[in-house]
Amino acid sequence: MIIRDEKPADIAAIRRVVEAAFQQPAEADLVDRLRADGDSVLSLVAEGEGEIIGHVLFSPMSAPFPALGLAPVSVLPERQHSGIGSKLIREGLTRAERRGCRVVFVLGEPEYYKRFGFDPALATGFASPYAGPYLMALPLNGVMPAERGRVDYAPAFATLG
């Protein structure tokens, strides 16, 4: 398996992976909209045996410091629970830090994302439509550059229910 940047030829396969992973089109529509809006900062695929088997996307966030939002991460159902999603996330975090990102936010299941260092407590001082126990932050250099402020995902996220 290799992890690499998305290529234009991967778009249809990425859509199939995202739809299969979420068993609905909403998240795949989100990926397409983020890409169309120019809000796909990092879009990585996991490729195994010549097939796209996983995908992760990082988009810009409005924040008091350089920040990205991690969402969605998708793996084909038959390949889930094999570490593909974790590898995609870790590679994305490494690349985000290289690009000068200070903090990555994610809205998701704390028990899953804590393994990468995400912490709901680090996001509690930030106003957001998604504020609450599922909004988490990960400072990429280990220190939050601010403890308060407002954070907003890219506009395409407003289309999710």
From TrEMBL:
The keyword Transferase is annotated on this UniProt entry: yes
CDD domains given in the database record: NAT_SF (cd04301)
Protein name: N-acetyltransferase
GO molecular function term, any single one: acyltransferase activity, transferring groups other than amino-acyl groups
Superkingdom of origin organism: Bacteria
SUPFAM superfamilies: Acyl-CoA N-acyltransferases (Nat)
Record's keyword terms, sorted: Transferase
Organism: Phyllobacterium salinisoli
InterPro entries listed in its UniProt record: Acyl_CoA_acyltransferase, GNAT_dom, MshD_Acetyltransferase
Domain N-acetyltransferase as annotated: residue spans: 1-141
Pfam families xref list: Acetyltransf_1
